[in-house]
Predict the 3D structure of the following.
Amino acid sequence: MNKQTTDNKLYDANKAKFITFEGLEGCGKSTQCKMLYDYLQSKNIKAILTREIGGVDSAEAIRDIVVNKELLPMSELMLVMAARHEHIQKLILPKLQDNYWVICDRFVDSTACYQGIYPEISVNKIYLLHQELMFNLLPDITYFIDVKPAKALSRALSRNDNNKFEEKNPEFHQQVYQGFQTIARQFLHRIVRIDANDLTMQEVHNKILERLHLC
């Protein structure tokens, strides 16, 4: 876990926590983000809930393009990176420096799994760009809500407000799922995989609290 550009930490990790949630569309990660945020609020812990692509007005404007327009792969990646730079500089870092817990629905791991499947964009390139352009800011802990593609996609499509990613074919979602499986094994120190296929929302939430030692 590297949150440094020099020898000075960007924030005090002993107080503030940066927590991200990852997984397929329809896996329930957004629900878990909100449940954790509500729990922290109930304990009078300073926290914010945010998302990617988005989080601040400028990044939300970019989100509208990325999730609704068909783009060249490299153009899509650059827009995602631009939105993240706005998000980090304008919201995430200031809040962490003020010792807020930041709970974020998706972050760089989603970029690796969604944009990294294009032949001209490698997963390694995405993490290298993140290191160079985003101060290598990584979460203290990332929860990968593991729900198999068929089940997750069925949930996502039932919402009737689908974006271009949700409407892609099952092969695309299988590739993204395999990407999450791979990076979960690669970053064992940071990514916690929760098999949520047969768990209730509350059971998943309880596992999250157990790992954060907040029960």
